[in-house]
Design goal:
The protein has one domain (3-122): Rossmann fold. 42% of the residues lie in helices and 19% in strands. The protein has helices spanning 15-27, 47-57, 73-80, 92-108, 129-137, 148-157, and strands spanning 3-8, 30-36, 64-69, 84-89, 114-119. The protein binds 4'-phosphopantetheine. 4'-phosphopantetheine is lined by residues 7-9, 36, 72-73, 101, 104-105.
């Protein structure tokens, strides 16, 4: 059984994340998408909201499970006995940061947690949760960035009815 974790903030989940989830779920037997509960950041959505969003957006993928975690990814992966993390790479700018995290995770797990990178499909290469929030905060159109139900939740946070 090949299992993997796709960790992230997912604040909110975008079509870029969903592209990675769909493709990773075709490679691995089981994929756990896990929302980081990061106490040092002030997210737009609570962990519970992000978990619900991901559950709804991946409802058609039977081998995908949604979870959340706090603390180090290596400790969480060890508790779940999972040895692969999946991450998406959009551009060269992601690479340095992702390389550092992947190497840190490998080192601090004594080689037990490896990272597999999937390159984001070109149509989503420009997308990030941060830019989606920025556009929505000015009531801009995010229909090509996130599923409609996620879009409605984002606009609601910024006080827009669309
Ligand atoms: O979606 P993001 O914010 O780019 O995801 C970053 C994430 C969650 C993968 C990363 O910050 C993470 O794994 N954080 C948990 C703490 C940890 O293990 N850090 C890595 C060693 S520095």
């Amino acid at each position: 059984m090949r299992a993997a974790i796709y960790p992230g903030s997912f604040d909110p989940v975008t079509y870029g994340h969903l592209d990675i989830i769909r493709r990773a779920s075709a490679i691995f037997d089981e994929l756990t998408v896990s929302v980081l509960n990061n106490k040092t950041k002030t997210p737009l959505f609570s962990v519970e909201e992000r978990v619900k969003m991901l559950e709804e957006a991946t409802a058609d993928l039977p081998n995908v499970t949604i979870d959340s975690f706090s603390g180090l990814l290596v400790d969480y992966a060890a508790r779940k006995d999972i040895h692969v993390a999946v991450r998406g790479l959009r551009a060269i700018t992601d690479f340095e940061y992702e390389l550092q995290i992947a190497q840190t995770n490998r080192k601090f797990s004594d080689g037990k947690l490896d990272t597999v990178f999937l390159t984001t499909s070109l149509e989503y290469a420009y997308l990030s949760s941060t830019t989606v929030k920025e556009i929505a905060s000015f009531n801009g159109d995010i229909s090509e960035c996130v599923p409609d139900f996620v879009g409605r939740m984002i606009y609601e946070k910024y006080g827009y009815k669309r």
